[in-house]
User: Fold these one by one.
Assistant:
Number 1:
Amino acid sequence: MVRTFARCSPLLAAGILALTLTGCSSPANRAAMTPQDVVVSKHHPYSLSVQTGGGANTGAMDSSNISDADFKAAIEDAVGQSKLFKSVVQGSGGDYELIVRVTTLSKPIFGATFTVEMETAWSLTKLSDRSVAMRKSVKSSGTATMGDAFAAVTRLRLAVEAAARDNISQGLKAVAEQNL
Amino acid sequence: MKKFLKLAVLLGFITTIMSGCAVNRATGSVDPSANLTAMKAMYVKKLPADDGGTNELIADKLRSKGVTVTTGTEPAPGNVDAVVTYIDKWMWDITMYMLELTITIRDPKNDFPMATGNSFHTSLTRLSPKEMVNEVVDNIYKGAK
């Protein structure tokens, strides 16, 4: 028994190490992408609708991605919590429309510390006259270490969620600086 | 030493299996306010570390779309309609191959990403750099007005 274990131990060690250092499939969680303590400089007395694009679903053999629906929900929750706008509406009935597109989500494939780089394009449009109030590129990053999670799948997801949180936080602050 | 080599081979094998999932993804999106077909002059900003000529492949592909393209590492000239940036990620599996390519077409005035495309192909379904560039640029223009 002991001899069998000794024979198998390199395989076991390799398996554990590979599982720890690589990662496949675990989508970013909408609640974890929502920044909790966003302090905005202004509260706009208007209603807002939110649209997202450029995201991707996470396939079974894929690495963590951000889905459009989850990213939209995270932005809406953050707008609601920060009271940046008077209300968030669904569809196209709001005073303003915020479109956020994920343009870059750069993820590591292998490693102990995962750092994810993210870029989004934020467009805020006044719906009554279709005038563009803001167009901005928002760049953010998120890092997760072995201390945050031992399993690579979890560590990568945490890094993606941290990058998304930072991105939403920066984007909302930029929107708050606008004179609407 | 023999044990260490055995372990290294096993690790390499398992890592390849674990990280070499056969994933294919090709996306493209254009901001509703951007009119790509009206952009006739672009500058492809070469990554300083790029020695594979990805910037030239992108420039050639855009030229085939009727765009006048210049490329280099210097800041973009003032007379262009858009600046094109890219991120290419390479992997090794027997040979080096381009795992992922993201191309972004930006407003030269404020760096705003007007359009973006991404292709991701793991080893088993790998494409040549030229095919990756063609796929990404074609996907971006598919979404153009």
Number 2:
Amino acid sequence: MTFRLREIGLTALTYLAVVAIFFPILWTLLAGFKTEGTAVAQPPVLFFLPTFDNFREALTNAGYLGFFVNSVIISVGSTLVAFILGIPAAFALGLFPTEKTAGTLSWVLSTKMMPAVGVIIPLIIIFKQIGLFDTIAGMVVLYTAINLPLVIWMMRSFFAEIPKDLIEAARIDGADTLRVLLGVAIPFVTPGLAATGLLCLIFSWNEFFLVVNLAGPHASTLPVYIAGFMTSEGLFWAKMSAASTLAVIPVFIAGWAAQRSLVRGLTMGAVK
Amino acid sequence: MARSTRLLLIAPAIVYLAALTQAPFVLTLWYSFQKWILTSPELGVTFVGFENYAYTIFQDVTFRTAVLNLVLITAGIVVFSLVFGMAFALLLHRKFPGQGIARSLAIAPFFVMPTVNAVVWKNLLLNPVFGFVSYFTTHIGLPRVDILAQFPKLGIITMAVWQWTPFMMLILLAGLQSVPDDIREAAKVDGADAWEEFRGITLPLLGPFIELSVLLATIYVLQLFGEIFVATQGGPGSATTTLPYYVYQTISQGNDVGTSSAQGVCAVIIASVIATFLLRLLSRTFKVSKA
């Protein structure tokens, strides 16, 4: 009996803790459906007649849509380029390791650990000189470099799980490397590929330091738009909440879809 | 696999990474020995040796503050996220109705972009007049506080802990799943209470996962920028100016290429000391398999 009570108590505590950690998101979501007056009301209002005006306004606001489109193009583009560069490398490192493989992987990881402040100044100067500053192409180039180590490490760990016999059989059948990669290896790691892609999308979507330093009005993404609420529209909580909600929803969808591989991605494949 | 095929597959990725991370860092090093103000092209670019470093390390008081703030804020975030993350992992590891959705909801803060995190906390939650936290604290008889003005470091730590707790939780949950439940059950049968079981069995077995989560979080949190940019702009004064934010200020407001580069190099040195430590631990605890 005491055991049952203890279990019920722990479950109740768990629900309470989860509600508490999710509350800031819930509160923002609710504020997006409020009028500006209700959003700042004291005491806080929990039940109210929802309005869709803030969401409608955000979605029809040319400024907001521009940032949104930039975010989509830059994160999808950089994920694709990172795939094109990273998958062949991960394939070679994962399925045909040599004594140099561990060293190469450590080096790749070290580029991921490089603080952005260590490279930002030359990047600003060079990007301005060669016309990549504040361009979509420039941001794709940068985010590809952020995504590449993740693609290499994660895909390597997925490729390494392919049974060796499968690869050998294909080679004996006369398949060349390209055909082994495209016909045998990639179909085998499709779930891993999807998870890796989703993680790349999340990290590029949320990135802020590089975009705020290397982009202006043309190539800025949603995190920059939201940061703008601090100066110009900080008092419009309902509008700010609706815009914030719309900015994070794609990441929630991607994140929950990739939930099973999240730990693997966050630890660069160290924890499965 | 033939050497040439191998090279063809690996080289493009390596060259790309080298061009975008290694090469700019070498340039940062080079710039750090120059006097170069972007807004004063008439002064030109002159080689000044270690002058920028001498200024940064021995004269610039704000730089020292920024390093200290970086250490304090990072340590605060990592320690509190670890404690909360452990609590969440232990709670969510139990079987209970709705476990799946509870886990999904608890992970959610990690997906929120830093700038949304900052505008939401600064306004909806921590605003001293209209914020929810203020309503809550005054309701239970505590004085009204403006956390970001009075305790700015605590404010930044709070919003980042909210974001990084799920990160810790995820890695620790994976750790708990790797500990066979019967080992923990056996301890209970032997009469150990929950705390003894946690201290004696779970915690030691989670060791490698705790190390990994702490070191990874440290590497990422050392780069914390968006929250500070939006919520405090490094202030009040320089109370929340960390090294990354200070470099940003030096280049974007001071346009000082030489000094900001020297600061950037110092930031890299600090981070690489920690990264080396991390890599050594990673290769010790999770052997990079050759297969």
